[in-house]
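I'll show a sample.
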Amino acid sequence: MHASRYRRPVPGYQRILVVSTTADEAEVRRIRGDLGRDPLVLTAPTAEAGRVVRVLGVEPQVEVLLAAVTFPPVDRGHRLDELVRAHALRDRFRDVVVVTDPATATLLLRGIAPDQLPTRGALTVVGLVRGDRPVATRRGLAVGVVLGFVAAAVAPPGAILLPGVVALLGLVFFFAQPWRHLGRELLLAATVAVGVGLVVIASSARFPGGW
């Protein structure tokens, strides 16, 4: 976990935006303009939180646990932390916005970012460390097998160039942070294609007309 005061998305971190119900309309509009695509908004079931959500203009998910309580239990901060992290882990590439009262926001931040320094205003941003998007291994293998058969069926230059072009594309995507998972998938497909192509060509040479 990493906590910081940045606003714009930073590669390698998922943003948790904790918004207090004390935010005025101008603050909320600035937050709305800073949100990434398809953010997840968690909100307390209160009129104050509803006012903030309406300005955000995003369909929220209401969580009763985010409602203010007069006498919070000792584990409330831990439960708030678990709630928000559980939602964040379902899609590590979405901004998560939490709209709640100032006291609940403070407890949440103590749990999710204990080293976070207090910030002024109604917004506090926390960055949760995340890994790269997972590689679709099965799809990469399947594409590699098909590509290998196609490469083996064409003239010799094509048998080399086809996997080479896929590998080159994979390298390009690999060095572009948002598409790194696709780069790895293409590199996997190119590697499998070379292996399958060699096996098919060798089999064809050994047993002419056998496939």
